[in-house]
Amino acid sequence: MKWSAKNKLSLITASCLVVGTFGLVASTTDVFKDSTSSITSVASEKKQAGVSQTITPKTLSIAKLMKQGLVQTYPGDPNLAKSAFRVDRLLSSPPKSLNLVAKDGHRFITVPFIMEDTSHHDGGYSMYKPNRFTLKDETGKEYESVDYVNRNEKAWKNTHQYFAPYRSQVDVVYQVPINKKTFVLFASSDAFAKTHTVKIEVD
Is the pTM of this model over 0.90? Predict the structure, then answer.
């Protein structure tokens, strides 16, 4: 078959167009790959920098929690027998007058808080809220009181006033999971100078 000069020119032009098209597609693909790689790299850098990282809650040891108190003690500690504030030995059960029923998988811890400041006789009062003291377990989970009984209404009034020099005893009840055995109680008040941490262990 004989090709005319015009046909040869058309064939050469078509070949150039095809080559050019493939070159454009290859170039576009390379650009897309570079862009994707760049985006992935930026995302990776952000993740490494902590921008998109999932933060796992820290597990706090009982020892670390105890160190948060200037006074570190336990229920019935004889070293604090003459202190203005202390925690007596745990009661075996909540006061019957409260008629409490524990949820499934939970139990009660009853903590007697003693406040007896004999150094003041001026008739004034100090801010004191033992019913607001909280417990924490080793994961840092906090437990608030569920109820309480005030054993001396002359010493503690209106849920926040301690009157010296009377002896106050407030039995505060907490509800905690049965599988948790050790807790740290945090006690802080205007009625006593230093923050107390109280290690509480149950069977």
Answer: no
